[in-house]
C-alpha cells in the first residue's frame, strides 16, 4: 500500500467517519459514539445557560484550617485518597474509551460493550506506560524549572554600574526561557500524538507491549519527519476550521434553544416565587429540573457538534497510519465495504 500523504488521508477519514456515525443514522447510536469521540479527543463545545437562581450556600465562613484539625484529619486524608483514586481511574477509563473508539472506527462496528470488554488488558498496559511517560516529563520539567530558577536568580542579581537592572541581561534570559517553554510544549504535544495515534493501534491490533509499540511508533516519526509534520499540522488545523464553521452556523439555533429553556424556567420561578410550604418545594424542584434539562441539552449539543469532528481526528490517524503499518492496512482491506445490515442496525449497549 502506497503511503498516503497528510492531505491524501483527509477524504478517506471523512468517509470512515460518515459511515460509522451516519450510515444508517439513529440518534441513540449517534450520541453514544459521538459522546465517546468528544470525550476521548477532548473536543470543546461551550454553551451558556441560566435557568434561575438556585439556593445559594455561604462557604465564606468555612475555616480551611478545620480540614487539618485532629478530629477531621482522618476524613481529610480519606477525601484526598478518594480524589487521587478518582483522578487516576478517570485516566484509565479515558484510555479504555480511546481503544473503544479506535475499534469502532477500524472495524466499522457499533458494538461498544464488546470493545469495552476486549481491550481491558491493553488499556491497562497503556495506562501504566502513559504514567511512566508522564512521570518522565514531570521529572524533566522539574529539572528545567530548577535550571531556569537558578539562571534567573543569577542573571537578575547582576546590575549595571549605577545599580539598575540591565535590560539586555533580562532579554537574554527571557527569550531562551520562552523558547525552551515552547519546545517543552511541542515535545508534550508530539508525544501525545505518537501515543494516541501510533502506539495505541499496535497494542490494539497485535497486543504488543507498551515498549514494543512505543519503539515502532517512534520509527514513523524518525523515518518520515516531513510527512509527520504535515500530518500534525492538518490534524489540528482541519478540525479547528471545521469547528469554527460549525460554531458560527449553530450559534443562533443553540442560543434559541437555551433562550426558550431560560424563559420557561423564569416563568415557573416567578409563578411560584411567593409560595410557601409545598409550593416552595415545587419551586426548588422546578429550578433543579430546568438546570438538569439545560445540562442535558448542552451535552447533546456538545456531542452532536463535537463528536463528528473528534471522530474524524481518530479516522484521520487510522488512514494515515495504515499506509505505514501493514497489520492495520490488512484490517482496513478486510473491512473496506462495511455492511449496512445487521451489524450496523444492532442495538448499542
Question: What do these coordinates show?
Answer:
The chain is mainly alpha-helical. The protein has one domain. Helix content is 76%, strand content 0%. The protein is built from eleven helices and no strands. It has helices spanning 10-22, 27-41, 73-107, 112-118, 120-156, 167-205, 210-223, 225-271, 278-322, 326-334, 342-345. Helix 2 crosses helix 3, helix 3 (73-107) packs across helix 5 (120-156) and helix 6 crosses helix 7. The longest helix is centred in the last third of the chain and has 47 residues, at 225-271. The chain is globular and about 75 Å long. Residues 51-62 and 338-349 have low confidence and may be disordered.
- How much of the sequence lies in strands comes to under 5%
Molecular shape: globular
Overall strand count: 0
Whole-number mean pLDDT? 80
Percent range of helical residues: over 70%
Tell me the distance between the termini: 35 Å
Count of individual helical segments: 11
User: How is the biggest beta sheet arranged?
Assistant: none
Oligomer: single chain
Q: Write down the Rg.
A: 26 Å
* Uncertain stretches: 51-62, 338-349
Element order, helices and strands?
HHHHHHHHHHH
Computed structural class = mainly alpha
Total domains, how many?
A: 1
